[in-house]
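Operator note (shift B, R.M.): manual run for Dihydrolipoyl dehydrogenase requested after the automated queue skipped it. Running by hand, logging everything below so the morning shift can see what happened. Input copied straight from the record, untouched. If output looks odd, do not overwrite the archive copy; leave it for review.
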Amino acid sequence: MPDTAEDTYDVVILGGGSGGYACAFRAAELGMTVALVEKAKLGGTCLHVGCIPTKALLHAAEVADTAREGSQLGVNTTLESIDMAGVNGYKDGVIARLHKGLLGLAKAHKVELVEGSGRLLDRSTVEVDGRRLTGRNVVLATGSQPKTLPGLEIGGRIMTSEQALALDTVPERVVVLGGGVIGVEFASVFRSFGSEVTVVEALPRLVAAEDEAVSKVLERAFRKRGITARTGVAFAGATQDGDVVTVSLEDGSTIEADLLLVAVGRGPVTEGLGYEDAGVTLERGFVTTDERLHTGVEGVYAVGDIVPGLQLAHRGFQQGIFVAEEIAGLAPAVIPDSSIPRVTYSNPEIASVGLTEAQAREAHGEVETYEYNLGGNGKSQILQTQGFVKLVRVKDGPVVGVHMVGARMGEQIGEAQLIVGWEAHPDDVAPLIHAHPTQNEALGEAHLALAGKPLHAHS
Ligand SMILES: Cc1cc2nc3c(=O)[nH]c(=O)nc-3n(C[C@H](O)[C@H](O)[C@H](O)COP(=O)(O)OP(=O)(O)OC[C@H]3O[C@@H](n4cnc5c(N)ncnc54)[C@H](O)[C@@H]3O)c2cc1C
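Run finished. Output pasted below as returned.
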C-alpha cells in the first residue's frame, strides 16, 4: 500500500511494552502524532508475563507463608492448600484491570495502536501487514525474550518463566536454573507454595550482581526456608522421561524434579526485523545507541531491554519518556544506570541502588561502609525478619550505594534512590526524621551511624 498522509506520524514506535508505550504517551502529551505497533498485547513483558504476574504470585506466596506461620505469633492458622486456579484467577484479574487501564490511556492520548508484527523498512518506515507507517522519528522498543542454554530445549517439563506463570498445579520438586533475579523470585514462590526447590547457579553466589553481603543474607535465609542453592557448579544437561526431568551438573551429580525452570537471562528481540538493513548497529543482538539513545541512524532511537544495560521496566519507562522529550527538543538529562533502583521481590526482599562496595572501591578508591542490622529495628523485629541496610560512601564524600535485604525492604528503595541520586552525604540525611516504628528507620539509623551519631546501634 502506498504511503498516505494518514499513515505519516511524528513518531512511529515498534513495540508496546514498558519502553514503547511510555514513549508513546509522553510524545502524545507533547503534542506529537504517534503510531504504536504491537504484535501481542499492549503492556508487553512486564504487564503480561513479567513484573506484574510474578509479583502477584509473590504476594499469594506471602499470604501462604503467613497462614503457615501464624501460630508462631499465637494466631492459630494452618495452610490448607494452594489452589492454582484461584491463584491464577487473582493474578490474571490484576493483569486484566491494568491492561484495560493502559488501553484507556492510549485512547485518551490519541495514540494509534496498530496491531500486528512490524518490520523496519528504512529509517522512517515501519511495515505492518503490508501497511506502511511513516515516522519523522522511529523508536525501536521490541524488548526481550527468555534465553536458554545450548542443547537445552524448552518444552514439556522444561520451561521458562512464561510457561511457569501459567502452571495449574504446584510441582512437588523444582529445579531452578539460574540464581539471578527471576530465578530467586520463582524459587521463593515455589517454596512458599510447598515445592521442594533447588537453585543451580554457575557463579559462586546467588544474585551475583548484588553486593556480596546481600547474597550471603539471601543464601542464609533461603537455607532456613529449606531452599537448596547449588552455587559454583555449572549445568551439564537435562533429560525428560515421563513425569520426571533429570538435571545433570558438571560435578557429576544429578537432581530429579517435576519441573526445570530455565531462568538464565533474557535476550533482545531484534532478529529479522530489518534493523541492520536500515543501518542500525547490533552487538550480540542488542541495539547500540549513544547515551541519548540515538542509534546513529537519523531519526531512529531505541529504548528498553533491546538497549544493553539493566533489563527493568522502570528503566524502559524512563528511556521512553527521555526519547519523546529528546525528539521534542527538550534536551532531557541523561540518567546513569547506576541511579536506577533494583528490587528483587523474593522472601526476603532485596533492594539496592548505586554501586556495590566492590564497584565503589574500583571507581573511587577509598570508601567507607556501614551495615545497620535489622535486629535493631523495631518494625523488622515485629515482622520477624532479618537483614540489613548497608551504605557505601566515598571516603568523606557522598553515599554512592545503598543495599538492603529483609522482608518488605523493597518499599525502602524510594528514599535510598533519592539519597544516591542527589549525591547526599550521611550528614545531609542524618537530620531527617524517620517515623517510628517503621523499617524506614533502619535507613535513617544507618546514616546517623555513618555520620558518627548512632542511636540504636553501636558505633
Ligand atoms: C518473569 C519476569 C519478571 C520481571 N519482573 C520485573 C520487575 O519486578 N520489575 C522490573 O522493573 N522489571 C521486571 N522484569 C523486566 C521487565 O519486564 C522488562 O524490563 C520490560 O518489560 C522491558 O520493556 P520493553 O518495553 O523493553 O520490552 P517488552 O516489555 O518486552 O515489550 C516489547 C514489546 O514489543 C512487542 N514486539 C516485539 N517485536 C515486535 C514486532 N516485530 N512488531 C510488533 N510488536 C513487537 C512485544 O510483543 C512486546 O509487547 C521482569 C521480567 C520477567 C520476564
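Quick read of the result: The first strand starts at residue 8 and ends at 14. The chain has a mean pLDDT of 96.
Leaving this for review. - R.M.
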